[in-house]
């Protein structure tokens, strides 16, 4: 059954939205809201980190916010085309990776997991 939807690139009668990866079109307003919130938080963390010289914390938080923003961009791509493999890969990778901070270069024994 999955083979009949292999070449779908848009929602049509032959490629229904129920057969997409999620089975629905991601909500545009909610994804724009979360994209804006994480972008704002990332900018605030960047300025606070520069002001108070909390470099490692600033890098981790800015990295996390940036990957969340990219993840929500992927979800916006999927709102436009729920069959988009690129949109799905961007959002699934970025929204899963975002909570994991990068390793601390000054501590070689620290794992990022």
Task: Write up this protein.
- The protein starts with 27 loop residues before the first helix and ends in a 16-residue tail after the last helix.
- Helix content is 57%, strand content 0%.
- It contains 3 helices and no strands.
- By secondary structure, it is mainly α.
- It is elongated, with a radius of gyration of 18 Å.
- The protein has helices at 28-52, 55-80, 85-97.
- The relative contact order is 0.14.
Please provide a brief summary of the model.
The chain is mainly α and 113 residues long. It has helices at 28-52, 55-80, 85-97. Helices cover 57% and strands 0% of the residues.
Please write the string of helix (H) and strand (E) elements.
Answer: HHH
- What shape does the CA trace take? elongated
- SSE class: mainly alpha
By DSSP, the count of extended strands is: 0
Mean pLDDT: 87
Please describe the biggest sheet, giving its number of strands, its sense, and whether it closes into a barrel. none
Unreliable runs = none
Could you tell me the radius of gyration in angstroms? 18 Å
* Approximate helicity band: 55-70%
- Count of discrete alpha- or pi-helical segments spanning 4 or more residues: 3
Which percent range describes the beta-strand content? under 5%
N-C termini distance: 38 Å
């Amino acid at each position: 059954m999955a083979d009949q939807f292999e070449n779908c690139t848009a929602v049509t009668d032959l490629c229904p939205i129920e057969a997409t990866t999620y089975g629905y079109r991601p909500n545009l307003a909610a994804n724009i809201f979360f994209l804006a919130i994480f972008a704002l938080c990332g900018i605030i963390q960047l300025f606070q980190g520069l002001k108070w010289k909390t470099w490692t914390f600033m890098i981790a938080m800015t990295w996390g916010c940036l990957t969340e923003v990219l993840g929500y961009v992927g979800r916006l791509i999927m709102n436009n085309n729920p069959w988009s493999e690129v949109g799905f890969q961007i959002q699934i990778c970025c929204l899963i990776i975002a909570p994991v901070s990068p390793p601390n270069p000054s501590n070689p024994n620290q794992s990022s997991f």
